[in-house]
Amino acid sequence: MGTNELLLLVTIPVGIGLINIILPNILKKILTFGGLAYLLSLTIQLYSKANLSLSYKMIFALDQLSWLTVAFIQLLGLIILIYSLKSMDEVNERSYFVLFPLTLAFCNGAVLSANSIVLMIFWGLSGISLYLFGVMGRSESASQSARKTFLIVGGSDVFLILGFVLLRFINTNSGWALWNSEVSFNANFSYLAFFSILIAAFAKAGGFPLHTWVPDFSKDAPVEGVAFLPASLDKLLGIYLLARMVMSLFILHIYLQMMLLTLGALTVIFAVMMALLQHNGKKLLGYHAVSQVGYMIMGVGLGGMLAANGQVAAGGIIAFIGGLFHLLNNTIYKTSLFLIMGSVEKKAGTCDLDKLGGLGTKMPITFMFAMISALAISGIPPFNGFYSKWLIYQGIINVLKDLSVGFQIWGLLCLILAIFGSALTLASFMKFLHAIFLGKRQAIHNNITEAPTFQLIANGILAIICVIFGIVAIRIPIMKLINPVLNIKPEWSIAAPTLFGTYFPELFSFLVILPFILGLIVFLILIKKKRVRMDTNYIGGQEPVEKFRISGTGFYNEIRDMAPLKFFYMWADKKFFDIYDILRGISLFFAKLFKALHTGQLQFYCLWILIGMMVLLKIVK
Amino acid sequence: MILPYFIIIPLLAAFLITLFSREKDYWSITVSTIASATMLVLSIVCFITLKGETFIYNLSGWKIPFTICLVRDSLSCFMIVIIQLISFTSLLFSVNYIRHISSSWKYYSLFMFLVAGMNGVVSTGDIFNLFVFMEIALFAAYALVSYGGKAFEFEAAFKYAVIGSISSTLILVGIGITYSATSSLTLAHIAQVLPQKPDILVWVGVLFLVGFGIKAAIMPFHAWLPDAHSSAPAPISSMLSGVLIKALGIYVLIRLFFNVFGAPPVFMNIFMVLGAASIIIASFLAIGQWDMKRLLAYSSISQIGFILLALGISTKLAILGAVFHIFNHAIFKSLLFYNAGSIEMAIGTRDLREMGNLKSVLPVTYSTSLIGTLSVSGLPPFNGFFSKLIIIVACVQAGYITYATIAIIGSLLTLAYFLKVQRYAFHGDKLFDVSEKSIGGGMKFAMLFLALLCVVTGVLLIPALRQSMLDPIVDTIFNKTEYIKLVLGSL
């Protein structure tokens, strides 16, 4: 009864959300947890059925790509729920436990849709959820950020409508059915359809230039909502749609794929450059949430690229697998980082990096999880983020081999930007870790204790996944989860390489971990023999008082004044890169213009009527 | 013989209210509510029992073209349902709302005249009677716009009356020319004769397009609307924006240009251009507003643009979109005006800059306003999504990609200005010492009821329901001069 199982993935969370309206808080939590645990187990059971297109084809269907996405929606939903069991403030808790399962249902519905109208409905509903999470924020700018978010994300929904309507008429055979259109770009308006749907995918995932809502939303919305949507579920949805576009909706040509590569690289570098200078921890993570999307766009966008012989290039497939793997990895470590930031914020009362510091000794477990996630996002082996980036780089290089010199230079520039972006990510997270957990602690934070158990459990699970996905990267996530996705398109499956370079993650992990273990053994032996000198810190021979505290936020301030970059930051400060502000400016210009024509004088309005009538007469006659 | 009741009942109610009302408003509320509820039930019966047929009521012993006749077809019944639905909820909303202005019976009496006029316009099959009923509705509307008695309300009513008179004059001249050319005032009969006189058709077409275009507030004939709709009491604003501009404007344009003139391509192209201009320009104007009701008024112009654009495309699908959007717009725009009225009553301002954080003190207003916002912005799964989707699909299907893009941009702009309302009115950190208790049960019921309709009326597109409810209306419009046969043949 596959039919019912797919339906359950939507109806159960909707039911939970509706029941939660009337339940007391404790029952709400139990019901939601039970429901989500069941949904996760249900999804796991569906793994073997993902080869089949399950019925309700008019409404829902399941294939390997949608299974993968749905599975991660359930997994991350459950983990974030565990965190939220003991984290929400009383005012928001009531609506949170209604909105949370509903959002999960909407995201499940969007991914399982077999029909573009159904997809549009669930896609739109997930955007509304995002807005409602946004307005839960307590800060002064929360409503403005929620508005901006919804304008970009909700606004992109109308482009999604246009795109799918165009597709419906470009490929009349498939009707409103979703996944078999394979539109080439010879047809009229196929570019308009492509870019319309791309806008929706980019806006949801946070791709350049539609990314600007993510940092603002991250700063102002409750951290549970940020971890739930922009950090994880929206990424899954956005990149899922992009993957669908590349695999099934369109037959991309090289220029479009190079454009995606470029947009991906720009997303990486723009966002990470902004992240470097942030003073607000959540906003910094928001910029990184955007930056990481760039890698996914680069990888997924190259999927199915043709080699010189007209066959699907293995490099494109490697990049595609890397892109999807990076999607999974990013949802894990980015969710983890947001939740950790949330734990710190709830304890310290702020996420202003200037005011934090030295919390490592007070929150050691949280610090350890933060370090794992920070290293993972920075692409440090053996953590999961390394191998997904590695695959994307390999894929790009492999693809470029067969291209002309012009494309090679173009592609290499993008690759350099991406690698440079990864280095800057590491730099940014060194600042992040230092500013929160290292350095001198402010006296007001001396009474801070470790995060509550539920939060530690959630963060612990995510950190463990970061490690496991790094150590057994090929064996489990790639071979078991991502490789089956290629079966959707047999020619991709054939082109998929059996070996992924010369990286052996298990061996490499062992080699990385071994020196640490040896070091630890030496350290413990020396401690036992009391050969380690313990001393207090001092600066310039004096006790390190609070005024000598270095927060870490100023680590990279100099780049703001560096010759080519200062213009970038100056323009960024003036919101030249913010599409929301650009469009807002244009709208207000026209609003003023048209308003000036509305003088409120009756004779003027009568003149309009007269002129209007004369023009009409002229046209009709 | 159900149709005449939609004119008799409100006229009788207005008469009884005027005759027996005392200082208190209980009698007028009771009479008008009973009349309105009765008409709502009758209208639903009228619509459901029609089954796609056309009936004629001759009000005297004379026959067409000499008689005054009422025509009951799918389109007129559809409009009657909308009028009764919104007037009923507006009356419920009015009970508490109007008391904060005055407790006079005059409001209810005028309200009944307004309803009688609109019902007459959509029921009649005679163009001169249409004009007369239109004037009845307009006189009531002029008075109701100025009901608050403040200077700006009188100014708005004056502007409305002046521009309304210009449009009525143009319409009257059009009727005169039509009569001189066809020797008939019956629409079906005119439809038979007029196409043989293309020169006359051009003149009459332009006069009617401008005349009724002013009533429908199509760009560039819209200038009266923002003042009038923002100055009127909220339930009247909802009547004006929700139904009056449709009954007196859009409905008559459909009846004349489709059923009488046979949808001449040149006028259909003009519909599309004016519709597109209305969508975009009114949306930009709405973005720049701080007066909540004025913003809603500009939004009405923009939404009328969607309807007109769809009518101009004039394919079956586009007409379905237009018809459905007429219905949906009546619901969500009335709801949004109720929200504005509720806020105005609670905190005494319509200026968005003076509002804030009303989410916490006016939860019903907030939640219903959010639903209204999502509906008008065309977001799924609310009713506005489906009608706009159909309009966009129809544009693409007919090959008008530019118009589809304009509709898309219009939707985006709609979302932009309604999120402005949400942000400034309902969020933020201002504190108001008010509660929703100050708002009456009738007001809350009206808001909740229309919000519920915003959520559920999308089901009308389920094929079985669409075929029985919407398709007959679409057929009435799409089959154009089939109206002649139906009316003249059903004698």
Question: Looking at the chains present, what oligomeric state does this protein adopt?
Answer: heterodimer
Q: What spatial form of chain A do the alpha-carbon principal axes imply? A: globular
Give the spatial strand order of the biggest sheet of chain B.
1-2
- What's the helix-strand series of chain A? HHHHHHHHHHHHHHHHHHHHHH
Biggest interface, residues from each chain:
A-B, 55 and 58 residues
What is the succession of H and E elements of chain B? HHEEHHHHHHHHHHHHHHHHHH
Portion in strands of chain A:
under 5%
Structure characterization notes:
- The complex is a heterodimer of chains A (621) and B (491).
- Chain A has helices at residues 2-20, 25-45, 64-84, 90-112, 116-134, 142-170, 190-205, 213-220, 223-249, 254-276, 281-301, 314-348, 364-377, 384-401, 405-437, 453-471, 474-482, 490-495, 505-528, 563-573, 579-597, 602-620.
- Chain A is mostly helical and 621 residues long.
- Among the domains of chain A are: 252-533, no CATH class; 584-620.
- In chain A, helix 4 packs parallel to helix 9 and helix 11 (281-301) runs antiparallel to helix 15.
- Chain B has 491 residues and is mainly α.
- Chain B has one domain.
- Helix content of chain B is 76%, strand content 2%.
- Chain B contains 20 helices and two strands.
- A two-stranded antiparallel sheet of chain B has the order 1-2.
- In chain B, helix 1 packs antiparallel against helix 4, helix 5 (127-145) runs antiparallel to helix 10 and helix 10 (234-260) runs antiparallel to helix 13 (316-347).
- Chain B is globular.
- The mean pLDDT of chain B is 90.
Descriptive labels:
heterodimer; A: 621 residues; 70% helix; 0% strand; B: 491 residues; mainly alpha; two-stranded antiparallel ribbon; 2 strands; 2% strand; globular
